Amino acid sequence: MAQQVQERYEDSKLYRIRHSAAHVMARAVMEMFPDGKVTIGPPVDNGFYYDFDLPRNLTPEDLALIEKRMRQIVQGKHEFQKTVISAEEAKKVFADQPYKLELIEGLEKGGLDEYGNPLNEKPEISIYRHDTFVDLCRGPHVESTKDIKQDAFKIMSIAGAYWRGDEKNKMLQRVYGTAWESKKELEDYLHQLEEAKKRDHRKLGKELEIFIFDDEVGPGLPLWLPNGGVMIEELEKLAKEMEEKAGYVRVRTPNITKEDLFIRSGHLPYYAESMYPPMELEGVKYYIKPMNCPMHHKIFGSKGRSYRDLPIRLAEYGTCYRYEKSGELFGLMRVRSMQMNDAHIYCGEDQFEQEFMGVIDLYHKYFELFGIEKYVMRLSLHAKQGLGKKYVDNERLWLKTEDMVRRAMDNGGVPYVERTDEAAFYGPKIDVQIWSAIGREFSLATNQVDFAVPERFDLKFMNKEGADEIPLCIHRAPLSTHERMVGFLLEHYAGNFPVWLSPEQVRVISITDSQNEYAENIAAELRDNGIRAHADISAQRMNAKIRGAQLMKVPYMIVVGANEMEANQVSLRARDGSQQNNISLAEFIVRAKDRISRRASEL
RNA sequence: GCCACCGUAGCUCAGCUGGUAGAGCAGACGAUUCGUAAUCGUCAGGUCAUCGGGUCGUAGCCGAUCGGUGGCUCCA
Question: Residues A22-41: pLDDT tens digits?
């Protein structure tokens, strides 16, 4: 049976509605600011935006007025009319619009699109008109403004954005809007945004007492609270088990190192901006490490290696510090201090595919365990214009290693998308892209090929022919950093962690204080069995205790009253509200231990 | 780093256009001894982010700094 082909967003009616709504918005804004300059206004996920260069900053009141005016405009039922014109004509139409003139130049000269990226062929130049407003635009649009439902769009926010996405350019004002086919869809979307806010890891992290930030410690430097500490311990335990099975060995390396190491690695010229500045002692500069690789390279190079020893897989949960710009920080997802689920695999070229796919396999095991389904594997490639700047200047090796990765993924039948200009400076990589609750995209895990740095470290092994050979290095971090992973898991589970990951696994609740001692004994016995439990013997009523445990999303509540104590039993209430009354503690322990040992998702 | 917005008790928030602060929860204490998501009462808690300025006077005005939020740029 033929599989139904999903319509591309670019071909959908929704896309045309949003693109057209952007034009209508631009018209409303230009009415307010006749001297304002327009730039571009494309559809995006869930909506659209338009970038303006205006004589003054827009205010929230302005946005309300713009939205109101847009409603009037769409009701005018103006047709969108396309006209193909020459570059000369276009320049006349947009004579007082410098940004449009720049775009026309780009189109005319050799095909640059609106973001300044090269196009394969010289495109035609077209303009779209609705009523009084004309915009340089390749379309497509809806037929008439009446296709934009006046109650199915909303202006969302105002933000700064650089012209053509380059921070050297002027900052424009970007107005974001959302538009849908019906009022219902808009309402659903807005509701969904509200729901997403509830599972924002920054909110949950505070409520569940996972981590905090403190002004005196500094931005981007999370303090892990006891509950967060437990999760980290569990994640490390998981990683160590999995890596041991997969043939990794563990190493440990210092947090600071002499400047020389990063000069040799090549990180300093590429990476200095993201590093904390050096400290100088007795004439020697030391840096806090932003990554562990160079030290692992030193360990590999610390003795002679034979092809018989390869692959060598060095693993470490290394603590790194990166000076991310202040505006880039974002809860736990983007921090300045982090612990990476790091490892470096040194192998020969003939072993590459197996090792690389071994890592991908590890990813899949983790994702299955966590039930992670919404992610995209991205093959991140170099860009020619970045050679010698962002990327090591060796095009031949770039193309070769990119092809090796592509082939390995294809042979493994693993779906992925390709993106240029996203590689590491030393080689291509597979990034696992995920989205935070509020919709921001992040690379969770990464699997990178390094064809450049081993040579700089003079790493070698003796091959079968008795000759020195430079190994390839695979950098990988399937469990990301503790920071990003915990942030992601908070949102993924909305704080309802599986039992093995839950900071507090069991809360024992006494109904009256006659059962307090019984409750404490039960908690102690659970702890003897390796289960994280404590008794709530506060003077609150049982209902309040249960509420407290539910709010902290404790998976199991053991309730004990006079009946249970009399019969030497317990009653179980799980986080999902299910109950199992008057069972033996031993029976519960079997259940809890089963879930924990299997790292099961069910309660 | 850039643009915009925000910063009031541990937390969530109220405080109209300036007349020197209030609630709920949490906490302490007391009472209550209770069957699956909040028992009642009392008390304690803030130099309204910080610093400077304007004003007879401000938590509400202006400026700077620090921190946060939404984007941009950048990234695990």
Answer: 999 999 999 999 989 999 99
Instruction: List the A373 CA – B38 C1' distance (angstroms).
Output: 37
Chain A window 2-61: residues with CB closer than 7 Å to nucleic chain B are 57, 59-60
Predicted-assembly ipTM surpassing the 0.85 threshold: yes
pLDDT tens by residue, A58-78: 888 888 889 999 999 988 888
**Does residue A1 belong to any structural domain of this protein?**
no
Average pLDDT score, chain A: 91
Question: Cα dist. A582→A400, A505, A529, A592 in Å?
Answer: 66, 19, 20, 16
**Total number of domains in chain A:** 3
- Domain span including residue A541: 499-598
Mean pLDDT along residues A471-496: 95
A383 CB less than 7 Å from any atom of strand B: no
Q: Is the CB of A269 under 7 A from strand B?
A: no
- Residue A442 CB closer than 7 angstroms to strand B? yes
Domain-ending residue, one of A450, A465, A487: A487
Q: Which residues of A98-123 are buried (b: 16+ CB within 10 A; e: fewer)?
A: ebbebbbebbbeeebebeeeeeeeee
**Which of A's residues 200-259 have CB atoms within 7 A of nucleic strand B?**
202, 206, 213, 215, 218-220
Structure tokens, A501: 């990951």
CATH of the domain at A524: 3.40.50.800
What is residue A472's predicted lDDT score, i.e. its pLDDT? Answer: 94
Query: Which CATH number does the domain housing residue A41 bear?
Result: 3.30.980.10
In a domain, A28, yes or no: yes
